[in-house]
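Hey, resending since the last one bounced:
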Amino acid sequence: MISRSVIAFAIVASVVMPSYGQLIPETAQAHLCFPQFVDGGPVSGQVQTTFTFANSYTSTVYVTLYLTGNDGGPLAIDFGGGAGSQFSFSIPPRGSTILQSRLASPTIVSGWAEAYTSVPIQGVVSYRLFQNGSQSWEVNAPATLPTIGYFSAATAETGIALANPSKTSTISVVVTAKGNDGSSASGTVTVAPHAKRAFILREVVTNLSTNFVGTIDIGAANPPFPEFVGLTLKGDSRGTYSGLPSGNMAFPVSQFERIWRVYTKVFDAARKYIPSPDTVRIFINGDPVINAFGNENGIQINLAYAELIADSDSELAAVIGHELGHVYQRRTGILKYNSTNPEWDADWWGLIFSIGSGYDPYGTAGALAKAYMATGNTGLVSQFFEDYLSTDMHKSLGSRLENIYDTISQMCSSTDGASACSNYRQLFHPHMPGGLLLTSDPE
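The structure tokens again:
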């Protein structure tokens, strides 16, 4: 399984980059969590599990799906090729993959699941109840991400599933029910490492009226606030369930998830340029110092840097693209766009890779400006932030920032950038600088 601290990822996909950048659905992720699935059971009450994945990319995506039981251990399900707890498969360009269980277990089993993908995709899990061979109801639960807070409409019969993404730490969260009549009550749920708990609201908040209608808040009462994966379902006294909107609280965002999602998109655009792309690694470091660098092995992004630019994925894409530019430099020995300054040359690559993956190239200006600001605080920024230069880091960042408009103009007039910039102007940003407005891709 994949660690959620300092990690190394290898991306194994063969990609052709669309000239206008890669547009993806809002709900597409490169790490997909499914807080609840149920499968099997006696003929009087069987539940069938179906995972559906959709790939919006014009290239193949590679997926690994992990199934975990309520106790935190692997859980095997048969999708037609034999029971297993881990499944690796590919999805064709603009295609989908469906995994449907064979209802092989004579007793009901339940758990949660995670999928890691080479580029962001959409995913949903469905569980369908059969009673003596006749379908009774079906519930769909779209993929989600870990969060530190969850909010949902609720009644006393609301179904709740909570999974713990940590493999080492037990988590405790408080479920607070607030009635439309002004009442409030709460209960605590503890989840073992990598395990899952599923329950009805009234089972945890025990003094609720059977007529309770209101909302629930889920999260730790005090810091540190642990991450969890959550799901709520509308339920009734007959045991019939239907879906509710995701209640994940969007801020503060998990920087791990954000880096991983943006990286997969930017790397997808960069791999056509970088030699031996399948050996490139990304390391996400938890050190509280702003730093990012790239070398022949891959790139490192410190969580502190992602937090500095937390309000813009385009800024994060510029940083990741810049560091992948250093990977290109180290592996080829070539400074393609600026023969004397590796940092300026990497800025070019950052622009090409970020716009090629659908991000705003002006994000480079925001990323540089925030790094420039941070250098005024002693100890906040690593002295190795600009890995290739021994010159004054503050001055170097300022010079790159002052010239970013000209750099974008030149990049958009280059062979590598003209087509992507032209299409980006037509779709999103009519005032993008540089180059002619192309009506079709160059040969």
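The longest strand covers residues 109-131.

Sorry for the duplicate.
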